[in-house]
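step: validate -> pass
step: tokenize input -> pass
step: predict -> running
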Amino acid sequence: MVTTELLGEMKTFLPNLKVETSDQQVTVYPQTESEISEVLKYCNENKRKVQVLGGGTKSSLGFPNETVDLKLCLSEYTGIVEHTVGDMTVTVKAGTRYEELQEYLAQHNQRVALDPSWPEHATIGGVIAANDSGPKRLGYGTARDSVIGIRTVYPDGRIIRSGGRVVKNVAGYDMNKLFIGSMGTLGVLSEITLKLRPVQKSESLLILSFPSGNLEEVRSFAIKLLDSMMEPVSLELFNPGISARLLDKNVYTLAISLEDVESSVRYQEELIQKLCPTEAELEIVSEEGAKQFWKKVYTTLPNGNDSKQKDADSEKAVSMKIGVVNLDVVKVIRESQLLSDGQAVTVEAHGGLGTGICQVMIRGSKEDVVQTITRLREYAKTLNGYGIVRYLPGSLAETVDIWGDKPSYYPLLEGIKAKMDPNRIMNPNRFVGGI
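step: predict -> pass
step: emit ->
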């Protein structure tokens, strides 16, 4: 059998490499960059397909190919390589858990300005490879805004360095952008250098509820806020379905997060109170309450490493990401609620009025879920946006096209893949168009 054969090859080829087998699958746990390089080189020469893992929280993104020959897990390739406190930069191994990194940096009053899903389990390599970001993307930006250098192990075993370890290091093409968000289809990120920010002095969360359901009020308020001098780090709209679960409020709600020195936060709170529509209900949440709220938000998306979610396949839970022009998020959230009210499905949705990114969770029967995916994707197209499926139960794999129409630049992506991974061994089917 291939599993037995590959297991024997790995133990002979790299006798000190940790190797495990389960469910007819070989998993290796490299602890050094050279081991990652040797494993990839061997797999490339022998055309063995590889799935790259960190904490496993994003293992469900894209459509993982279940016939990969080997899983390369970076959970034991961890640690801080270099932290320059004065320059506010840190270089870290890709398998380091995101929350572990933040706890270390907090000792120096610094942090990485990102808010990925499942921060307790996600690894920094997975966050960067998936370009993961959350509702605070409005103020924080994305991984592309935080990364200043990457070391990547190519499929043929070569180790390439792009960017550097200081903030001002750009000369020529910014190769970092090529790997951020590539879902491990071009190589394995081994080390990442990030620029840091100081830990915020004060944090506040304002919840605006709209019992009347008048989303034009929401839109008008958002325009006023975005046109003002205020700098919220999030402006996230939640439909009644998810508001009921997170806030015990079965109405449209708007979550505004503020982070700055305390005087600035209090000043912005006062301005928002003055701009607040008369029909809206305003609640200012304590700092600890704000942290607990966002923690719940970050764990609403499916966790690819959660066995309970895998076992609950019968629920047909599907996650979608929809991207539109920022204020069109109001229309997407409204449409999601209409679909939930009018069909035998439950649709929970939230989106950033400053970013245009919506996250949608759909539950129901197989037929209703498929129909809802199609409706939302088509609706996004009418807004010149897109809709992709982030998580899909195996029973729907043959029914739903997770990527939708290939973008006009798809030939460029395919050409890059062919050049960097000609044997197509890296994370098959994990990127646009099944790359």
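step: describe -> The chain is about 35% helix and 25% strand.
step: cleanup -> pass
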